[in-house]
Design brief:
This protein is mainly beta and 147 residues long. Helices cover 7% and strands 32% of the residues. Strands 1-2-7-6 form a four-stranded antiparallel beta sheet, with no helix packed on it. The longest helix is centred in the first third of the chain and has 10 residues, at 18-27.
């Protein structure tokens, strides 16, 4: 016969899951970052359409002048820097840092079907959008009929 455990006293049931209690206890023991890092890795999204690829890099707070885009040997490299706010001795100080500051660099291997001479870049609302159109002169897929 199986034993069933039942708590018929709702006031004695834990009001939170064990994981949340454990997380709260351990939060203060983990080292916290109270100063901006030297570098960060921006998040990227890649979308494919019939016309080509669109690459989105999340760069909040990065000025257009601080972004550099290079293409060499089939690789597209986006690099730059987001400067951290200056820390004043008796002024406000960081209590927690989750934003990315410092230098960044992302490299993407482009397929041969991309027309690198027609790549366009636009930085709007903290998102760098790179339009990577397909080269209409290159044939990547062709079916040959047998006679």
């Amino acid at each position: 016969m199986a034993t069933l455990l039942y708590n018929n006293l709702p006031s004695l049931r834990p009001s939170r899951a064990f994981n949340s209690v454990l997380n709260e206890m351990l939060r203060d023991t983990l080292p916290s970052q109270k100063a901006p890092a030297d570098s960060f890795l921006p998040q990227a999204d890649i979308v494919e359409s019939p016309e080509g690829f669109e690459l989105h890099l999340m760069l909040p707070g990065v000025a257009k002048g601080n972004v550099k885009i290079d293409f060499q040997d089939g690789k597209l490299t986006v690099s730059g820097e987001r400067k951290a706010p200056e820390v004043i001795e008796n002024g406000p100080r960081f209590r927690r840092v989750e934003s990315g500051y410092g230098t960044f660099s992302r490299t993407f291997q482009l397929p041969e079907t991309v027309d690198v001479t027609s790549i366009e870049a636009q930085l709007v609302d903290g998102v760098l959008r790179l339009n990577l159109p397909f080269d209409s002169k290159k044939v990547t897929k062709h079916q040959i009929e047998v006679r």
